[in-house]
Amino acid sequence: LSADGALLPGLRVEVVEETGSTNALVAERARAGEPEGLVVVAEHQTAGRGRLDRRWETPPRAALTFSVLLRPSVAPASWPWLPLLAGHAVGKTLRAVGHDAAVKWPNDVLIDGRKVAGLLVERVDSPAGPAAVVGIGLNVSTSRQELPVPEATSLALEAGGAPDRTALLVDLLATLGESYAAWQAGGAAAEARLAESYAAACDTVGREVRVDLPAAQTLHGRATGVDSRGRLLVEHDGTTTAVAAGDVVHVRA
Ligand code: BTN
């Protein structure tokens, strides 16, 4: 697997055969002062990480697993947009090659209600300033046994053939680069556009949901949209709560 080009300014793609976690590897490089634009792709992760301290492991080449190092110039208050922006970019890329992909708030990508990609965005502080590591795991395997969780899906299972992972990576980086540049340059107006476009592509919006909040609280209600800070709006008990972080379960349409 290989890729290069000027898709993100300063893009440098490194491919490793095996590592624990590309997010951990890129975070280490960020701490050592590595500039924005490093992408590390692993053919195999032996200690892949998911959100909420979960594991995210797949056999060699069963997924496209990579992490991107970004050093956004926008105010840290806007950084919660990054996982949504990146998930939305994955969804757009998959739709462009014919998949009926949607995002699930905050940062899963679904095809036909099943998870095809997960994202883990982590903030790293370093003497060179703060950085964000955007980790993406996209299932490509032809075998259901090779999925990170049994109820997931993969591009091969959806399309009846294994995709070209290099072409996919190039497309993903191009779309991500474009969305990232528009967000960085566009200020509040770009975030308002992003909120609208994300909500339109989001399978969560319009559904009955259960949200497991970080403080072991649970919210039941209907997701009605995404606000200008990327928070999920949930209508319940005659009021609307803006959820900044939580695990969402789609209850029904
Ligand atoms: C989730 O669904 O909970 C997030 C999964 C994120 C997996 C990707 S694979 C590349 C990167 N490196 C990791 O260790 N995790 C992310």
From TrEMBL:
One GO cellular component term: cytoplasm
MF (Gene Ontology): biotin--[biotin carboxyl-carrier protein] ligase activity
Keywords: Biotin, Ligase
Enzyme Commission (EC) number: 6.3.4.15
Residue span(s) of domain BPL/LPL catalytic: 10-184
PROSITE patterns on file: BPL_LPL_CATALYTIC
Enzyme class: ligase
Pfam families named among the record's database cross-references: BPL_C, BPL_LplA_LipB
Protein name: biotin--[biotin carboxyl-carrier protein] ligase
Organism: Nocardioides flavescens
